[in-house]
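Hi there, hope your week has been kind to you so far. Would you mind checking whether the tokens look sensible for this chain? I owe you a coffee for this, so here goes:
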Amino acid sequence: MRRYHILITCFDVSADHHAARLIHYLQHIWQDRVVWSIMGGEETLKLAQKYNHVHVLEHSATNSAIGLSESVLEVFRSPLLSTSVRRFLKHGYHKNARTDWGKVDLFLPFDGQGRNLSLGKFAYQLKIRTGYFFPPIVFIWGKWNIKKMRYFNPILCVFKPNWMLYRDHHVDAATFVGHPFAYYLLANDTNALAQKHSLPLTEASPSSHTSSPLHHLPQHQAPAKNNHPNQNRSIEAFNHLIAQYNIEERTEQFKKKLRIRANEWVISLFPGSRRQEIRKVTPILLKTLQTLQNTYPHGVELPSHTGKPKRYRLRFILALSHKQFLRPLLKLRMQANIDKRTLPIVYGAYEETLKVSRMALTCSGTVTFKASFLGVPHVILYNISWLSYLVAKIVVKTPYIGMLNILHNRLLVRELINHDLSVKNIIAEITPYLEDENYFKEQSRKLITSAKMVCPPTSITSHPFKNIETALAKVISSSSSS
């Protein structure tokens, strides 16, 4: 029996993370009925080593860029990526492809509109069904992008305001699925997670009793007799995903490894997931660290109800999205005369780093959204070329760069861009969070509330992974019946 073949393209690190966790969930449910070819990164590569039905064609997740001149440079660094995808879509050829899987049935790009919009149009012209996960944010790029979305169905929106704009413009293919990271972070933060996701089916909502269209696909083996087999598989798959990526457990291990004590506050540094971000922002982050050390050599003192002030020593962690950026970071750290005990560098541990942080300095969009859900105050830092900055002022339809600010259309998280980006300004933003406990708690609560407004918490029967499964299952089911 020929299996349904899905091609996913990820051109940045966060897309690779999304793809890995989604496939992990879906593979547990669909098993050998679907096969996955991926242009991905480290996370999907790990998954491919675990599952025979997951195969990474090429490493593409560190080829994203911001800005105009920066993007041009990136195109010259990786000129063959789009060509590889087009060739694979048209001829089924790639030097690393599984030849026994046949042609692509569904092309599902993740984010990365720079390449994925044109690739989606190309796939559509080849009569290949084309979806889109994390479509272009209309608030940022304007309504002209909506016309380009006619080639995609389904369009899986992670932000409710963005989905509403698509619907207002009669894009019927758009569906709101929710943000996977949002639900995942919230679920991991709940002590009653196991009980919540092990409820008897009689206690689930009535809507959960509908079986997924994929359940009607041909199978090698008949499912076990069960009133709601697909619902059982969905619950089991989500529990398996949470167990695999258990943030609480990983955070405890992380704290032990770095020996973070209760009387220490961590300020985490996230220099981004793109080469030019790291090159431009890291030196400023390192100077900020040194200034904070000089300002608080003995830690931060806060009053307590006992009358004796509490003292918190400052710790710093630099978190990288990918190990390929480790060497230039080590060089920058050495040039700044900072030792590894003062600033340990970790990679692949964004969530753990945020969980132990008092606050964060970041120029990565995905991290800012995670920080908001976890109630970690942060400052967004960006430094792009002046040409890119001037063009962005004309093209981009929002004055903000932080996702939470964009979706709420107001400044909830401070942004320091280009001429505003200085050590002095960063210190001015950090100080209130260190010296005023009430201010810190108030801002932390505001972040969580604001994040939940654009990504409302969902239930076990309609969490993002389940919603994506349902949307894709309809596509696969219609394909198998035609």
Summary: The chain has two domains: 4-180+458-478, 247-454. Confidence is low (pLDDT under 50) at residues 65-73, 190-227.
